[in-house]
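Researcher: Structure prediction, please.
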Amino acid sequence: MREMSAAMARRTALAAQGLASPHPVTDRGASTRAVQKVIDRNRLLQIDSVSVLVRAHYAPLFSRVGKYDRTLVDRAAWTDTKRSPRTLVEYWAHEAALIPVEDWPLMRWRTELYEHGRWGGAKSVLERNPTLADDILAVITDSGPSSAGEIERALDVERPGRKGPWWDRSDVKVVCEQLFAAGVVSVGTRAGFVRHYDLTERVIPADILARNVDEADAVRQLVTNSAVALGIATEPDLRDYYRLSQRQTKAAIVDLVEAGTLEPVEVDGWGAPAYLHVDARIPRSANGATLLCPFDPMIFFRPRVERIFDFHYRIEIYTPQHKRIHGYYVFPFLMDGELVARVDLKGDRARSELQVLGAFVDGDRDAAVIADRLLPVLREMADWLELGTIVIGERGDLVAALAASA
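Model: Predicted structure follows.
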């Protein structure tokens, strides 16, 4: 079995993610081809509702190509014309995510698994309202892409009391999500980040929808996708990328090793078997600097982050404010192949400010060196988000050096 140092493995992982070298910085921003290359390699963009800075599915692309036109993603996911057909679609991949349309058949086994929804509540709702699913589908069939609220109004459904975004969902919303999980409806478009559901056959092209891929073949392809995106990975890493089961992933790995797609390797210090994709590149060095969103594929599996970077990272969105250590929406800062700092960011559109609420050096590193590399990244981010100024806050041992470099 081949042996690799931890540093080699880290560079391999960064190269697979397109993070081992700096991206070109141009006034025009990244090309459509550069954006598509990232999507082709990663195969998914996680979706999250947090909008304190920028939606999560936009950020990984910026981290890899720099400034780019976000409407490229919008058009790919939520518009569909003869001239510009849809190329991305929403489904449960690594949580809610955008995936290439051609990968939708690889999730068919999951739609069958989620026949009654991802949560137990959908079944009880349908037991109370046995015709509700058919009524919802009738509205969507007649009206086209519709939000849960629009469907409620069409069905003249009363919603007593105030409903929160993460709790006490209406029966209509619960059943819409059940139908989405089961693959009966998909997301035709979004407005204000609200899903507008449509019949899946009107979202997915007929030739792709007709493809039947059995579970074993689909899982092998999903694990292959994961291995390409990760470069080098343990079984739990490969499993987490698409939230597969251990049973599924282990069986796929056996087949892929036998086929020569994956090579078992031993990485110093990892303490677990690792698998190297046959086409993975092992660069001699990793350089460049970029900020990583909490939901970036490079860091969304926290045990992998600790193993590769010796970097303990927890998102603190759900932590009460007085208990937060680093902040609400913290971006790790990647510099020359290492995670060297944490930056709590917020975009204030009304003030046209990119606000650095806090910035913290990780470990025993030179704050001035980090600040000199971080500031241009912040400037590029502000330009990308059309925010006029960068405002440095007061929290953390990196803010003074940032202010001095500004």
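Model: The longest strand covers residues 338-348.
Researcher: Thanks, that helps.
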